[in-house]
Amino acid sequence: MSGLPKIQSYWLMLIATIITVAIVNTSQLITQRISLLLDRQASELLAADLVVVSGNSFSDEYVRQAIEMGLKVSHTVSLRTAVFIGDDIQLVELKAVDAHYPLRGHLEKSIEIASQKFRVQTGPAIGEVWLDSKLLTLLGSDVELGKSRFAANWLLTYEPDRGGALFNLAPRILMNLEDLASTGLIIPGSRASYRLLFAGEQSQIEQFSTWLTPRLSDDETIQNLQNARPEMRRALERTRQFFALSIVLTLVIAMVAIAITARYTASREAPKVAMLRAFGISQSRLFRFYSWQLGKIWVIATIIGLLVGWFSQFPLQWALDGWFGRELPIVYAIRPYLVAALVGLISLAGFSLPYLVDVIATPPMQVFRHIDTSKSIQRSLLISASAIGAIFLVLIILMQNSKLAVATLAIVLVTALMLPIIFRSMINALLFSRIPTFWMRQYLLSRLKTSSRGAMFVMSGFSLALLSILLIAVVKDELLSSWQTQLPEDIPNYFLINIPTQQVPGIKSFLDQRQIPSSTAYPLVRTRLTHINGAEVEAIEFSNPRAARLLHHTFNISFAKKIPDDNAVVEGQWIDTNSAAAQLSVEQGMAESLDLGIGDVLSFSVAGEVIEVPITSIRSVLWENFKPNFYIIANRQLIEDLPQTWLLSALINDIQKRDLKNLLVQFPSVTFLDITELMARMRGIVKRASIALEFFFIFAVASAFIVLLAAIQTGRQERQIETSLLRALSANTSQLYRINVLEFTLMGVLIGLFSALFASLAGWIISVYFFDIDYQFSAALWGYSLVSAITVLTIAGTLVSRKVYNISPMKILRS
Amino acid sequence: MQDVTKTVDTPDGALNILQNISLNVKYQEALVIKGASGSGKTTLLGLMAGLDQITSGEIILLGQPLSEKTEEQRSGIRSGKLGFVFQSFQLVQGATALQNVMLPLELGGETNAAEIALSSLQQVGLEAKKDTMVDLLSGGEQQRVSIARAYAVKPQILFADEPTGNLDAKTGHQIADLMFQLRDQSGTTLILVTHETDLARRGDRQILIESGRLQD
């Protein structure tokens, strides 16, 4: 390949390829690390091979049968309760385990937070509890749980079926199951979770599962390794989808950068290629030469990109560590590096080879005579087909047919194809509109339309980049706000749950005596929805994806004399308290998701009993008010005889909190839920999540910068000639400055408007149809889009202008 | 022009492009500069128009010495007094004929730019194509727009660099006719660079540049 001059102006293409390789490498490494962690946790996730979960205690028949089949069995019961730390109340997740727990995996305990950890196969002895490290202050003392006190001498440092930290907001206390009854915390209707754990050979488990499945009541569900932790998987799936979206969008910007830089490089190479061809160098030799040069660019970009990608995984790892309860393991696989290198190669070849092939194939005379070939259909087809082919190859490699990624790409491709048309239309509208005129309006708008000067490239390239960045921001914000509940200042900060019916008046009067504002007390009857109009819910196919999630819920049916605050009947009639007929009010969103209407009959399973109720009203609910809200409210007569506990909310200040100890002594089964603490911790997690989601911004912004730089470079020569012409026509420096800045500001306005409009539309589509979250159209988005586009473009315009001021008007005579 | 020399630095040392050129151009005269390719005729035109800085000597343009002036000052001298016609037209692509002619008028702060530009297009016979994008015009038409743009500012001197160089013979004749006709009507001084003998003959005076020197 010697004898031919090197490619000039390739550095932008090199940087764009480095960014592409780095993005893919980081995302692959981090995804693999998360997968590896989940794989490792999967075997321990259940602390057993098979688990049955229920809101009620189990029949002895299951245990007898399991033992007969040679399985090991263990019982656990979990519930939320509160303990005192000084005068403060701390919500805890109490878990009582028998002597066989855990059947799979192990427990770890330690005397102090940083001291040696002891690996053990059984839980606490009778009379003692093990504490989560968050309850360190209680270590060494006696912990009061309900009516009993327990020695707390150990910290619980590892528990196999604990799950991710994201979903465990209250610290754990582990106790012996034989002590649970003495606490008095379990009463009929308590919100406790009973688990029966089984372990054995795979064939025994399968045999037992076959025996067990038809015998399960509606309240009982099987968990195995495939369906465990659905809440964790859903959140992870959303996160994975968002990462997929961010990666695709960032890759789009990086690929646009490669395409624009390749076009620029090819245009710079055209005269040289024409000259070499005129001297008799064959097309095949030129093709080999350029392939070799591109190969060298790829090798350099791959080495640097893989290094950048490898280092970039660490900040992302820091942001994600808290999500999974432990550190992400290091991945030693070669796949992330191979995939990144391959994507780099496909992107570089797919976007740059067609331009170079076109330059090599163009007859030299066309180049010498400056005949514009950019409008040739054959050329456009070659470039488009190659680019689209490269994008789809990359998608297949990276996304493995992710619907979201394909849809996003489709939006981006359609947008990219429409961009020049939209911008030309916008400019024409400005040209012929009656808006107030400005200096050199006609000339400036004409300049923007001129394809040879690269203005369209700047606008199209930068718009795609800004659109992608805005889209990441929009979906991220919607996702985060869907994860956290907005809390006004004056909402109740405590929920009192698990209140036995006979204790409601006592608790109310306790609160009233101390002037603690509290809500109406609502009963809660735990149920499962089993049938709709006589059809089993599992057999019904729902069009709305939210339906499946709702059906997994255990519903709390309540009753109320009058419609709760911030609720409004949108259809039907509110419950007639004088009528004994069964009546049901269903929340509007639930009704829409399950295709429910007035008159539909719902069947619920309540502690083994089945009740059937027709829907008599549909209600809108303001969930954000953080008052007790319910999907389903029935009439009193329907549920008053069913097992139930009560709930109320209260606003308790710091001084009043000291009195809560007395309340707990009087009413030991009542659980206090401190919302303020929960929300503060939730916000902390969301903040970390936000950092992780913002990570791809760095790559996106870097790519956008390259796009802008490359696009401006593309039209540099034409800009110089035109500036020289303006100089010859007597334009002074100040006029040249104004023309350039005005031109770029105009571009900024058009780009800002376009990007905000398309980001809003695409954000809405992605939020509603892929993430199943509500979308709020935001005026701020338009502001950000316009301000960022105008600022960036005006600065770019100023910098560009600085370089062209010194251009001699003689250039116009020489051009 | 008095003893004007233009030297440029090259890797091989200083290169004299023009040497000791002394020349007077009279008011309303049509001066033709001839010479072979690379002889320095375009450089001479550029220096006379104040588009470039001389190395030594002096040029008085419209009564103003140029030798000590910066590009910014020379631009002020040129403003509204000089017109240019280029071999490759140098029109703003993507703009209409009218918008191109308006350009120097707007730069000069003319408030009736559109009206004056239209009248200038009428003079070159392109009124009907005022709203046509210049990219869609033929070579001859583009050069007419270029001439209309040059005459729109009512220049005292028109500089033309190979104005027919990119046109076929017939169109070239028509453009030459138009240029001299307008020059006769307006009384503008014309300084024309060409290597075409027919066009050169139409000037009041011809000078020949060879290897950067003025030949008698």
Mind telling me the C-alpha Rg of chain A?
Answer: 33 Å
Low-confidence stretches of chain B: none
Mean pLDDT of chain A: 79
Number of alpha- plus pi-helical segments of chain B: 7
Cα end-to-end separation of chain A: 33 Å
- Unreliable stretches of chain A (pLDDT < 50, length at least 5) are 164-168
Query: Can you tell me the overall shape of chain A?
Result: elongated
Q: What is the largest interface, and how many residues per chain?
A: A-B, 31 and 32 residues
Task: Sketch the major β-sheet of chain A.
Answer: 11 strands, mixed
Number of strands of chain B: 11
Give the percentage of residues in beta strands of chain A.
Answer: 15-25%
Word description of this protein:
- The complex is a heterodimer of chains A (815) and B (216).
- With 815 residues, chain A is an alpha+beta fold.
- In chain A, 53% of the residues lie in helices and 17% in strands.
- In chain A, strands 1, 2, 3, 4, 5, 6, 7, 8, 9, 10 and 11 form an eleven-stranded mixed sheet that branches. A six-stranded mixed β-barrel of chain A has the order 13-15-20-17-19-18.
- The longest helix of chain A is centred in the N-terminal third of the chain and has 49 residues, at 230-278.
- Chain A is elongated.
- With 216 residues, chain B is of the alpha/beta class.
- Helices cover 35% and strands 25% of the residues of chain B.
- Chain B has seven helices and eleven strands.
- Chain B has helices spanning 41-48, 71-78, 97-107, 113-123, 139-152, 169-186, 197-201, and strands at 2-10, 13-21, 30-35, 56-58, 60-61, 64-65, 82-85, 157-161, 189-193, 205-210, 213-215.
- A six-stranded mixed sheet of chain B has the order 7-8-9-3-10-11. A three-stranded antiparallel sheet of chain B has the order 2-1-4, with no helix packed on it.
- In chain B, helix 3 packs parallel to helix 5 (139-152) and helix 4 packs across helix 5 (139-152).
- The relative contact order of chain B is 0.20.
- The model of chain B has no long low-confidence stretch (mean pLDDT 88).
- The A-B interface holds A 439-440, 442-443, 446-453, 721-722, 725-733, 735, 808-810, 812-815 and B 42-43, 45-46, 49, 51-52, 71-72, 75-76, 78-80, 82, 84, 86, 88, 90, 92-96, 99, 102-104, 106-108, 161.
